[in-house]
Amino acid sequence: MNISWYDAISFCNLLSQKAGLGESYSINGENIVCDWESNGFRLPTEAEWQYACKAGTVGYRYGELNNIAWYNGNSRGKIHEIGTKEPNPWGLHDMLRNVWEWCWDIYDEQVYGTYRIFRGGSWAEDARGCGATCRRRSHPTILHRRPRIPSCTVFSTSANKPNSFKAHCFILVVHPYIFFRFF
Fold first, then answer.
1. What is the pLDDT of residues 38-72, one digit of tens each?
2. What is the C-alpha to C-alpha distance for residues 65 and 148, in angstroms, rounded to an integer?
3. How far is CA 67 from the centre of its chain?
4. Could you give the CA distance from residue 72 to residue 70 in angstroms, rounded to a whole number?
5. What span, in angstroms and rounded, lies between the C-alpha atoms of 157 and 86?
6. φ/ψ of residue 174, rounded to 5
7. Which one, out of 21, 46, 125, 142, has a CA that is 20 to 30 A from the CA of 170?
8. DSSP letters of 90-121?
């Protein structure tokens, strides 16, 4: 029940293959190159994640924390089904809370080497860590522990690309005209 940054990258390529799209990542061991022109799925950049999280709002959060997020102050020590808190103004649920989400970006290569960024806060996070500008880092091979969670239906918001399926991992992926979040 763990997922590393490398797992998330591999999942994006697998999802692209299943959808008949080009893979966004070339993988050669631990050397990963993103094809920014690919029509496939990929992790968001940190800037894309923050833009989607804030959804045109200003400030650290897009609403009252207890209304929009599961964190250690209200989660009762466990993850919760997605979509049970209020969404941001663009209709995205759980952007701040419940689980951390991997981003493409390297944290600070000169200081931390290949450490990657994850965003969003979690069910175990203090309130101060659940904000649109809060960022964390981890080595891309680290498997972040997570409790067993229910599957959820994920669907496209694009009328041209109807999709519906079950997913069991924590990734936010970007595709032209589609913004998917997998849990």
1. 988 899 999 999 999 999 999 999 999 999 999 99
2. 24
3. 20
4. 7
5. 18
6. -115, 135
7. 21
8. TS---SSSSS-EEEEEES-HHHHTT-EEEES-
CB atoms within 10 A of CB 64: 9
Inform me whether the pLDDT recorded for 127 exceeds 70.
Answer: yes
114 residue type, one letter:
T
Q: If you count them, how many residues does the chain have?
A: 183
What's the one-letter identity of residue 25?
A: Y
Q: Answer whether 46's CB lies under 8 Å from 117's CB.
A: yes
Residue 151 scores a pLDDT above 80: no
Give phi and psi for 28, each to the nearest 5.
-130, 90
Coil, strand, or helix at residue 5?
A: helix
Number of other CB atoms surrounding residue 30 within 10 Å: 9
